[in-house]
Amino acid sequence: MQDVRQLMDEHKVCVVIPTYNNGGTIADIVRRTQAVASHVVVVVDGSTDDTRQQLLPLAGAGIQVVDQPENRGKGHALLAGFKHAIHQGYEYVLTLDGDGQHFPEDIPPFIRLMAAHPEALIVGARNLHEENMPGGNTMANRLSNFWFAVQTGIRLPDTQTGFRLYPLRRLSGVHLITARYEAELELLVFAAWAGVELLSVPVRVYYPPQGERVTHFRPFADFMRITLLNTAFCLVALFYGWPKALLRKLRRVRW
């Protein structure tokens, strides 16, 4: 892992972990992340469980905690992490979730791909047939992938994972419309419309058995918000996203 840690330091990469009521998993995720990365930022999004107590022994030594007293949603937590990283002088942010579904040990492929494609936004691609993968998640991701392709003309195998690496300089001026789960979809769509290269790397995913699973996803409310957002994006794509992509292609044509 030394070469990966060195690459992260050279390219000024920090890991941002947004968390809300993940007291049972957050300490383990942070420790495993620290085994790979020198710089870790945990954004506590108004947690009401023992998340803060679990993080206390870990604070310092490359681990910083951004504590938000009120729960404002994952999108807002991500932006808080981005702003903190920019203020600290980092140029890239790698995000992963604090609920235990992502494997920090899968960080190295992101970093090696980043070194070869420094302007790209890199998205983890989960195996949607993984054991214990909820059927609803698989269907939702396929729908999300379909609408993303319609809106941007780009096909990605997984548009819903939170395991990603963002080049911060390419996100300049991005202002999210929403503050919850769908904010990650927004970031992808806006990046695609801005001409940012989008790449994928395979990642593992762990979903605990049904009785042990902790999720803050509200199936009906969150699905409706995502549906409305996709509808809005399709309309915007018609008058902005597609014409902008066409203009970029025409500029690359040599007459």
Describe the structure.
The model has no long low-confidence stretch (mean pLDDT 87). 35% of the residues are buried. It contains eight helices and seven strands; from the N terminus they run H-E-H-E-H-E-H-E-H-E-H-E-H-E-H. The chain has 255 residues and is α/β, with parallel strands linked by helices. It is globular and about 55 Å long.
Question: Which key phrases capture this entry?
Answer:
single chain; alpha/beta
Strand order of the largest sheet: 3-2-1-4-6-5-7
Number of strands: 7
The percent range for strand residues is 15-25%
Structural class: alpha/beta
Total helical segments: 8
Shape: globular
Produce a short descriptive summary:
This protein is of the alpha/beta class. Helix content is 43%, strand content 15%. Helix 7 packs parallel to helix 8.
